UniProtKB/TrEMBL annotation:
One of its GO terms (molecular function) is metal ion binding. It comes from the Eukaryota. GO terms for biological process: oligosaccharide biosynthetic process; protein N-linked glycosylation. One of its GO terms (cellular component) is Golgi stack. Mn(2+) binds at D181, H286. Its cofactor is Mn(2+). Keywords: Manganese, Metal-binding. Signal peptide: none annotated. The keyword NAD does not apply. This is Uncharacterized protein.
Amino acid sequence: MRHRCFLVIIVITAFMFIIKIRNSSYNHKDIDISKSKDTDLNGITFTNNEVTLATAPPLTFESNFTSIKIPMVIFCSYRHEYMSRLLRSLRDIDGLHPNSTCLFACQKSPVVKDEDIKKTNQLIAGVKFCKTKTIITQSKRRNAKEYKQQWYNVVKQTFEDKDIFGLGSVYEEDVLFLEDDIELSKDAIKMIWYMLQIKNSRYKTVAVGLGGWSGENLVNPHPDTVVIRYMLFFPGMAYAFNASVWREIKTSRFLTIKVNDWSEALGWLWVGRYNVIVPTLGRIWHIGAIGLGHTGDGKKRRRIEPNPAWSKSPRLVDLNKITLNTGERDLFGMYCNPSDWTPYMSVKCMCPKTRSLYPNRKHFQIVCVKFPGVYDKCIGRDP
């Protein structure tokens, strides 16, 4: 009898040890908001479809935020007149640790002139707010298909090259990617810091963005609110994600899908599967005059907003008041039951009243909408 009891104890002990080892393999990572000074942002969102949960941050919290260290990849097309404005906004931004790395991924094409290269290199050499590194890619022409391949190659190098950030190992954590023809708000890094904590605590939320393609607002814009929204389009001007997202892209049809715009291709691959988190008040200002357009050949001139979206707000974020708005939102931040969503580009991702309450011409305005059962702050009523 004693031998039988002893055998049972051994079996139970072995079983508990296996469970402990199995759980540890999920790389569970708690997020401690109290460690907010000079914080390295991290956390794996998903790996091989296994959920890796982290402790969700409170939706409103008292912050002792000072700075964060986060690698940045800046896609550079040797358009120095634009990049000078981006670098100026990064220089003046709040909360970026000087030991952060700025990786300039510069693409040479036949239209790039020697003078453009010289002036761009001078700008990079003058950067003091981060540690700089440059990689150069070649393209035969300037079009969406070439950019898609370049984007893929740069992201691959970011997460697979052991020496990309001088660590001697591949980088698994969150990276901030920026286009060269944008300006960022002074509080953009604070917003990234907060949104990454929420992103890294939710399985379906895989990336953060700083605004729409041109920096548009959502409905009920406010400096202290963010939303988790449906991802039909990826926020392709200023965004952050980690290596688990790259592995998902690598094993997908991203390069073969017949959509040449990389951000649209990514969105279409993940329709209904994943979400992104974005601020309700745009934190980017898209200043590039030439867009790729529907033809993808870079011949479309686009309308540039005379002022950034955040200039319509009386202030920027207060980290003691910042909060995540209720529920999963549609493309433009509207709140309704997802079962009531109506089609947009053949995908059900828009509330029934979105088009009438928030038409395209109002995307840079302050549009306050009341929803039954929830309350959103809006600049127009909650300054």
